[in-house]
């Protein structure tokens, strides 16, 4: 199975064939796929799988081991070996890409440990270990919007996973384990401001994120503080 979204996150439509069907779980496995599987705080893709002109609605995409599964509503006509056309719900996915890149900027702007995070269509959040309550809502918002406007490019690199043992400090989050594929880990670089392991889909430049709004900074327990963000449509 090849992840098409890893090399080209902008791929919205693709051809492939079915390699496995599970009628009971309502899952389809494809030979190649551009559907992003839920992971690293980013939701799984939705969309359409077309078989002989019939459209099956993909309601979620998940992964297990190295395999990616589309969960579909009506699986009846899905059969192994059948050719398909996959179409990603682009409105949703593109928002997730902008949100994901925005969270990396926030991560770079706040020099504290990340304890959790979630990307969503309407809003996203990142949790920090901030017992001294150093995070300031207005300050962060201003800082991020400067980085957005500076139009930094976003690119991917692959490193031997052994490098993580030598440089554990490049992993900023305690909650997300970087995905390891064939002994390699994928790193996302944002200009010279952020560099961290990540398997998610990102926009090409920070300008594509658009203006961000820090809607609130909430206390979550004694140590944790949650930074919530919104994007313009
Ligand atoms: Zn990420």
Question: How would you explain this protein's 3D organization?
Answer:
By secondary structure, the chain is of the alpha+beta class. It has two domains: 2-88, Elongation Factor Tu (Ef-tu), domain 3 (Beta Barrel); 93-231, Threonyl-trna Synthetase, Chain A, domain 2 (Threonyl-tRNA Synthetase, Chain A, domain 2, 2-Layer Sandwich), CATH 3.30.980. The chain is 18% helix and 40% strand. The chain contains four helices and 16 strands. It has helices at 4-7, 90-109, 137-149, 162-166, and strands at 2-3, 13-22, 27-30, 32-33, 47-51, 54-64, 67-72, 83-88, 114-118, 124-129, 154-160, 180-181, 184-190, 194-197, 212-220, 224-231. It has a six-stranded antiparallel barrel. The chain has a four-stranded antiparallel beta sheet with strand order 9-10-16-15, with helices on one face. Strands 11, 12, 13 and 14 form a four-stranded antiparallel beta sheet that branches. Helix 2 (90-109) crosses helix 3 (137-149). The longest helix is centred in the middle third of the chain and has 20 residues, at 90-109. The radius of gyration is 19 Å and the shape is globular. The two termini are 33 Å apart. The model has no long low-confidence stretch (mean pLDDT 92). The chain binds zinc ion. Zinc ion binds next to helix 2.
């Amino acid at each position: 199975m090849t992840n098409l979204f890893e090399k080209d996150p902008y791929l919205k439509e693709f051809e492939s064939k079915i390699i496995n069907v599970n009628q009971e779980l309502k899952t389809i496995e494809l030979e190649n796929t551009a559907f992003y599987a839920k992971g690293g705080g980013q939701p799984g893709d939705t969309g359409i799988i077309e078989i002989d002109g019939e459209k099956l609605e993909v309601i979620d995409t998940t992964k297990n081991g190295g395999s990616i599964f589309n969960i579909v509503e009506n699986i009846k006509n899905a059969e192994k070996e059948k050719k398909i056309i996959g179409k990603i719900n682009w409105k949703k996915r593109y928002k997730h890409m902008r949100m994901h890149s925005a969270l990396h900027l926030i991560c770079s702007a706040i020099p504290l440990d990340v304890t959790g995070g979630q990307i969503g269509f309407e809003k996203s959040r990142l949790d920090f270990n901030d017992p001294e309550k150093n995070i300031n809502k207005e300050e962060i918002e201003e800082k991020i919007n400067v980085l957005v406007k500076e139009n930094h490019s976003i690119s991917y690199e692959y490193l031997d996973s052994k490098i993580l043992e030598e440089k554990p400090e490049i992993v900023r989050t305690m909650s997300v384990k970087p995905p390891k594929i064939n002994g390699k880990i994928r790193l996302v670089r944002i200009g010279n401001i952020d560099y961290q392991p990540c398997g998610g889909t990102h926009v090409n430049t920070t300008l594509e994120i658009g203006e961000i709004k820090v809607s609130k900074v909430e206390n979550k327990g004694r140590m944790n503080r949650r930074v919530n963000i919104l994007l313009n449509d």
